What does this fold into?
Amino acid sequence: MCVCVCVCVCVCVCKRENWFDPPVIMALLKIVGDSLVLRTSTKGFSWSRHANGAVAACSGTDFARTPFSDKRYNRVRCRYSPMPYPITAATSCRWNSSDSSNASASKTLDDEKKSPLRIPRTLARHVWPSDDSLKSKQRKKQVVLALSLMLAGKGVTIQVPYIFKSLVDTLQIDATNAIETVATLTPATLDLTTMTTAAGLPVITVLMGYGMSRAAASGFQELRNAVFANVTQQAIRKVGRSVFQHVQTLDMQFHLSKNTGKVSRILDRGNRSISFVCDAMVFHAAPTTVEVGLVTGLVYYQFGLSHASVVLGTIATYTAFTAGITQWRTKFRRDMNRLENQASSRVVDSLVNYETVQYFNNLPHEVDRYEESLKGYQKAAIQAQQSLSLLNFGQGAILSVGMTGIMILTAQQIVDGTATVGDLVLVNGLLFQLSVPLNFIGSVYRGVSQSLLDMEQMFELIDTKSAIYNDPTKMSYDAKAMTTDISFDRVDFAYPGSSDRQILNDISFDIRQGKTVAFVGSSGCGKSTILRLLYRFYDPSDTTGRVSVGGHNLIDMNLDSIRENIAVIPQDTVLFHESIGYNIQYGNLESSWEEVEQAAKQARIHDTIMGFPDGYDTVVGERGLKLSGGEKQRVAIARAILKDAPILLCDEPTSSLDSKTESDIMNNIKQLGQDRTTIIVAHRLSTVQDCDEIIVLHNGNVAERGTHEELSQLGGRYTELLSMQSASKTPSM
It folds into this structure.
C-alpha cells in the first residue's frame, strides 16, 4: 500500500514538472516489487513490470497519445498486486493536465495522419518493403526489373525522331538534282537498298529499324506492366486485407452505427485506386521528370536556347494549369464519392429489407429515394466531366501553342540555311515525344488526386480506433486452470451516446462454475446487455466496476482467449449466404465433416437437412432467410456444439418460436448446457423454471434471485411477471 502511495506521489510530481515520459516511468517501475500497473481512467495506457523484470506498455494507443494531452483532468489509479492475482490495494490522485510535450507529440501524430504524403508513404512500403524476407526480396527484384524495362522503352522511344530526321534528310533531293539523277541512272540504281543515310546505313535498314523501334518500345512497356502487375496486386491484397481485418476488429459501437453499403463502397474504391497510385509512383513521377529533362537538353543541344526556352515555358504553363484546374475539380469528386456512398447504402439497405418493402407496398418510395441519390450524383458527375473537358482543352491548347512556336523557330532556321527539313521533323517529333509524358502528368495528376480522394475514406477507416481490442501481451484465459466462475461487481453501464438512460445500476452477482442461471425481466432492463458485457462487446461505464471470469477482470485478459471459451446462441441467428453445412461448420472451421454431422444430429436438424434436395450443400439464402426460425436456431445450437466452449450464453433463443419448437429448442439447450456454465436470457418464464437459479432484473438492478419455487413463494417481481404471462395466455370470454 505504501509503495502505491509513494509511486502516485512521484507520478504527480513528475506530471507537474513535465517529467512524465517513458524513461521516468521505467525508473519508477524498477523501484517497485513484483508488479505495478499505472492505468488511466480513460484506458489510455498501462505500464507494468512483472517479477521476471520485463517491462511492458499495453492497454491503449501509443505513448505519445496518452490522455495526458487532454486539457481535462485525468485520474490515474495505481494498483499494486503480485499479478495475475486479484488486486489487493488501490489509491488514486488527480491533477490538471497541461503537459505541453505530450500535447505536442499527440499533435505530431494528428499532423502525420493529415499529411498528403501519408497514403503514398504507406503504399511505398508495400512496393518496396523495408524487411529482408524472401518475399520482399522477390518483390524488390520485380520492381527493379520493371524499372529497367521502362528505361529501355524510353531509350528506344527517344531514338524514333532521330531516325525520322535521318530518313528525311537522306530522301530529300533537290528537284533539279532528282531530274538529273533519273536521266543518268538506271532504275535499279534508285533502289532503297543502295541509298544510304549520312551514317552510311541503307535506307531500307533504317526504315525497318524505325518499325522495330516502335514495336520494341511497345513491347517493353507491356512487359513492364506485366511484371509490375504482381507488385500492385500484392499491394492491393495486403492493404485490402489489413483494412478489412481492422474493420472486423472495431468494437460493437462502430458496427452498430456504420452503414454496410457505404463501408463496402469505400473498400471497393480504395482497392481499385491502389493499383493506379502504385503505378504512378514508380513509373510516372521520377521517370517523367527525367524524360522531360532529357528531351529539353536534346532540344537545347540541337537547336539552341530559344527552342529550349519554348519547351520549358510550355512545360511550366502546362503543369501550372493542370495543377490549378485539378485542385478546383477536387470538390466535385468528393461530392461524387459522398453521393455514390449514399446511393450504394440505400440500395443495400433496401435489398436487405426486401420483405419490409413489400409488406408496406413502399417500392415507389424506395425507388424515389434511390433516384434522389442518383440525381445528386448525376449533377456532381456532370460538373466533374465539364471541368475535365475544360482541363483537356486547356492542356491541348497549351501544347499546340508550344508546338507551333517551336515549329516557327525551326522553319526560320531552315530559311536561314542553318537547319534542314529533317530538323523540322526532329523538333516536331521531340516535342510530340514530350507531349506524351506531359499528357501523363495531366492524366496521372488527375488520376492520383482522384485515387487519393477515393482512398481518403479507406484510411479514415484505418484511423478509426477501437475502445476494445485484443492485446496479445495480456494474460490468456485458461478455463481449466482459472474455472468458469462469473462475477459482476458494482457494474454501471449506459450505451455510448445515451448516457441519460442508464441500463445497469451498480449491479453485482456471482455465478458458480457449472451452474445454469437465467436472467428474466421486462424489456430494456439490461438482460442482453449483461451478455454483451460478458462477451466484452462493451466495458463497464465506470472503471470501478468489474466483470470477471475465473476470478480475473476481463479487461486484464487477452480478448481472443476469452471469446474462444464462450459459445453464444443469439436471439436472431444470422447465417451466411452459403451452404447449411458451411454455416454449421462455422462454429469450428477445423472440425471434420463427421463432427459437423454429429453436431447437426445433436441439434436435431440432421434429418431436416437430409430432406433438402441438396442436403448439406443447400444454400440458405442471404441471412439464412430460406430457413425457418426454428431451423436457424438449431443451426446456432449445432454451431455451439461444435465450438465446445465451457461457457454458454443464450440470448432469448426461443422468443419468436411456437410452443412445440420452443420446447424442442430448450431441450437441446439443456442438453448442451450440461457440465457448462450457462446463462440464459429469457422472456418466457416457462422455459427457465428448472434452472439452478433465476435472477430477476428491474430498472437495471437485481430485484430478486433464487430458484423458481423460492421466487414464486416470495410474492415479488417474479410473481408479478408470472401473473402477467399467465393472464396473457388466458383466452378472453
Observations:
- Confidence is low (pLDDT under 50) at residues 1-109, 174-179.
- The longest strand covers residues 486-493.
- The longest helix spans residues 363-416.
- The radius of gyration is 37 Å.
